[in-house]
Amino acid sequence: MSLNTRTLLALVGIPLVIYAAMAALLLLHNAGTQQRLFTERLVGASEALAPGLNDALGEGDELRVERLARQLMEYNALRALTLFDEQGNRVLALGRPLLAAQRLSVPRSTTLIEDRNIWRLQVPLSIYHGNDGAGAGGSGRWLEAEVDTRTLALERYRLLALLSLGGAALGAVLLLLWRALSRYLTRPLERANQALFRLAHGDYERRLGKHEAAEFDALGQSINEVGEHLQHFQRDMQRQIELATRELCESMETVEEQSIKLDLAHRSAVKANAVKSEFLANMSHEIRTPLNGIIGFCRLLGRSELDKRQLEWLRQVHRGCDNLLRLVNDVLDFSKIEADQLNLEEVAFDMATVIDDVIGLNAPEAQRKGLHLLGLLLDDIPTPLCGDPMRLQQVLNNLVGNAIKFTSVGEVVVRAELGQQEGQHVVLNVSVSDTGIGLSAEQQHGLFDAFTQASPSHSREYGGSGLGLSICRQLIARMGGDISIDSAPGEGARFSFTLPLRAHGAVSARPPLDLKQIVVRLHEPHPTTRAMLENWLAHWGARPVSFADTDDTTLLMLALTPQDFVAPRRHYWESVIEQAQRPTLILALGVQLDLPDWPLPFGGDIISKPLTRRRMIAALETLFNGGPTPADDVEDELAPTGPVSVLIVDDNAANRMLLKALLESDHLEVVLADSGYGALEYARMRHFDLVLMDIRMPGLDGLETTRALRQIDDTWARCPIVAVTAHVPEHQCQRWLAQGFDDVLLKPVDEAALEKLIKRFLGMTLVSPADELMEAGEIKTNSSPPALDLALGAARAGGSEAFAKRQLLLLIDSLTQSKAQIEQALEQNDREALLEAVHALNGACRYCGAPALGEAAFELEQALHRHDVDESARISKALEAQAMALLDEIRALSAQRFMLV
After folding, report:
1. Residue 350 has what pLDDT?
2. What angle do CA 533, 536, 537 make, to 5 degrees?
3. Interval 488-503: pLDDT, tens
4. Structural contact between residues 51 and 142, judged by C-beta atoms closer than 8 angstroms
């Protein structure tokens, strides 16, 4: 509340309130006093004239009666006056009464009746004449008078008006007094306030003058001192600001220069990042394409005749290719994650299938080290789930691969259980545990960072780039989960992560088969594996019992080690099988191909560990159901009755040759096209039963070629076309299927996947002559390679001798040109031309039965890479000699071609 308001209330408000209260009390007192005096005067006058009126009425003196009555009316300002005789008749009526007479009997005393603003006075005349009026000699006359009391109200209103005028005059006087006092009090304060306002807004020049009041004068002097202080402070601050501004300008110039440099550096970094991304995308294709070919030819070479040492070398090459392909994928994934270009898929999948695939992919390494690799999946997990199975499998593969890598003895267990479920949302708790070397608390710190390993020696001892766990952490985080580690040195490690997923329309997993309460006698020394098998069998409707229980057994299930396949342990287990006289399922810890043959007299099968649900279900179905599956029946019905033709479209020659070697047989014709235009030329001339189409090709790519093929005629519109490409996301595969492809085959081409495609679309099974060569077990060793080896060429061609001959004839046609190019390069001393010619010849020899020429070309190419000119010249002579010898052998073979057909 302001000072003006407070002084106004004190000087004006309070006196006026007091005046109003006193005026109200005066009005109330005056109203009561006036009414009482008026009543006393009216009653007194009426009672004084009553005897005279009575006498005049008794004497019949009408003039006197009227005179007295009018005297009474004029004296008391009556409105009406009426005289009544003994019978209640009006004797005299003056004025105009407002109220009708209500009684005709004589009143015994003076009565005053109040009716709003009208009063009625009844006065008996005889009672004031010396008798009672009702007794003997009483006249019984009375008068009634009406009085209008509004004059009293007018008097009150007049007094109220006078009091109001007095209050107004008092208020005006008080306001004038307040105004004068407020000017005296508030003006100095207002001037002080304005001075402070000017000081607040930077006006320090004006000062306040002196005031006659000491208090206000002291206030003004204080404000003036503040202004002077602020003025000095402003000057000092202005000098400092000018100094700081000069320094800031200099700094801004420096910052601007640095900003320009940073902007240039940023643009350079963005450009470099774009170049890196483009480079990685191109290198992805360029590296994966030869790697896929190498892996495919390694698989194909593994089916040819090789001795044990060569097979071991081949396994090492295959393992190195797999590691290199995994490293390339890790680098690309890490680059995508850094650039925030990694998109997660949302597709339906089965968690059991994902774990089975992980177990199967890591099974060879676990078998090599003799580890127990298990996948424990609780039955309460619903199916199907919605998420990214490829990235989930990538995480599990990395964790399981690391666990196997750092574990030499014991087990590696993958566990998945339902953490929580709310509506259509579930959270899985997944873990990978091992019994390996373990990690200390210091080693665990920063373990999930990029290019970080627990120990510097691990990269040399165990290999790896240190990217796997970093990619796992970021993938799990993008899926909405969290990964952690629990480990101690020498006690193994346990990697756990949560995985939020959607379960649209998911239901509890149903048992895949019903074993109808058969009794399974189980021998499994490993406790974790035994618990897993007991859980599987119980869920599938069987009743597992211990190995000691020999009563009423339907199936004998034995978990054996490699030592159990050798005498004397083998004799013991053979006796157990003989005594049981039941079908036997042997679970072997090792590679099944390395195990010796074990006939089972009562039926059964041998399954190599690690076990998967899928393999166990297939073995039990075959054992108890028997006969071909419905799918086999369909395949038999779909089996072709005539020759089948397949068109392979790929711009990479190695990929074309690999697919052709994997497919070509006596019942299957393979035609090659090196571009989309070549495929269209073949399509206009003939029809094919199946097309394997590469996606990335110059000119017409796979999609455009497929659209063009579908538009040729109705037969091509129905022809199955399969896309052959490196791994792509599921949504990309679905897009290709929607655009005209019937299926997608991933590189490196897996023989099982290829055979599945052939069964699906052609209804036939691939049988390669190379398998027969491997079963024959012929081992060929030479101190020096021959110039011509037709058997080697057939093995490299997938067992097809005719294909090997065609490859040799193609090589014959190119030898003359190759020899001329090499001689010309040597004469001109052109190292690049020589390297290019020898590299082409070396590549051509890799897929033909010309080992001597191939070895000479390889040595020459290696020498050229080492820049050893003398050695290059020496080897080129040997190469020429080998080429001439090869030409002699091929000419001899050509002369006998009609005998070999």
Report:
1. 87
2. 85
3. 888 899 999 999 998 8
4. no
